[in-house]
Amino acid sequence: MASKYLKLSTDIPSSSGKEKSSSSTTKNHQKLDVCKFKEHSRARIIENFVVVWLDAGITESSKDCQNSITRIRFIVNAINTFTDPDECVGFLAKTNDEKVFMIVSGGLGQQFVPLIEHMIQLDSIYVFCGHKAKHEVWAKKFKKVKGVFTDIESICNLLRKDMKKCDNDMIAISIISTVKSSESASDRLDQSFMYLQLLKENLLQIDHSIEEKKELLDFCYIQYAGNSVELNVIGEFDRA
Q1: Where is this region: Disordered (predicted)?
Q2: 56-89, pLDDT tens digit by residue?
Q3: What DSSP string describes 64-101?
Q4: Nearest one of 148, 162, 48, 45 to 103, comparing CA atoms
Q5: How much is the pTM?
Q6: Domain tally, the chain
Q7: Angle subtended at Cα 150 by Cα 149 and Cα 155, rounded to the nearest 5 degrees
Q8: Alpha carbons 66 and 230: distance in angstroms, whole number
Q9: First-to-last CA distance in the chain?
């Protein structure tokens, strides 16, 4: 069953002072619509984290909802909204490579959280409702529930911290798993530092062609369609 994504359209930053071919490409990007790339078959996610928002009251035409989505996308690009719990569970079951940070309404959360808390891909849960005291009673029983919130800004503040901690934990695990157990801690840090330095130098020295840059830009414009923050960064790279 197809999951329901919030449709958000955006204007892609245009490139000034470029040749006509580049200008034409940019105009094509301006017509992109998020829903075209966020279909229910599950779009490719290029980040380590994904936000899943389950709320029966989410509507495509709601300005409050769109503003909340925009605020969250300052932190993470991949956001998937659902009004149906079954569709949401189906999406979670197919998410294996990313860590999920979930926002759920109080009304659905009380029955839904016990069904999904065991999922290893689920890192944190944030209950979003208008009756904090009422939902804190059941929410505090679940370890992954980070709290009950009545405003999106509070969720975003904690979401940013939780993602940073999760990212640091993932990096630490990755480094440890790639070194031999017999090596000392200092050797591990030295080798990791040397590897990152060499990688950085090699990337800076690569002479990319115009066509390769165009392919990268096309990919980025598609992946970050609707995310004004990231699109501004991509636009700067496009104009460079």
Answers
A1: 1-27
A2: 988 867 888 889 998 998 888 889 999 999 999 9
A3: HHHHHHHHHTTT-S-EEEES-HHHHHHHHHH--SSEEE
A4: 148
A5: 0.60
A6: 1
A7: 45
A8: 17
A9: 43
